[in-house]
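Appendix B. One record, verbatim.
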Amino acid sequence: MSEFFKQLISQLTVIWQRLSLQQKIITVSLIAFTFLGLISLMVWSQGSVKGASGGGYRTLYSDLELDEGRP
């Protein structure tokens, strides 16, 4: 392990030891809610790509000329 990471871990340990019990609970709760939020966002975004029916992407318009498909 590099010296940088050793110093980082020791500094974080010192900061953690200085926190009160209430601050530790709040910190752990915020980290947990952040991870839960990220996981929920990833699950939701995967579901929205598949669509409500689970069919994935579907054709919206077909048999268009090249000029009709451009804005």
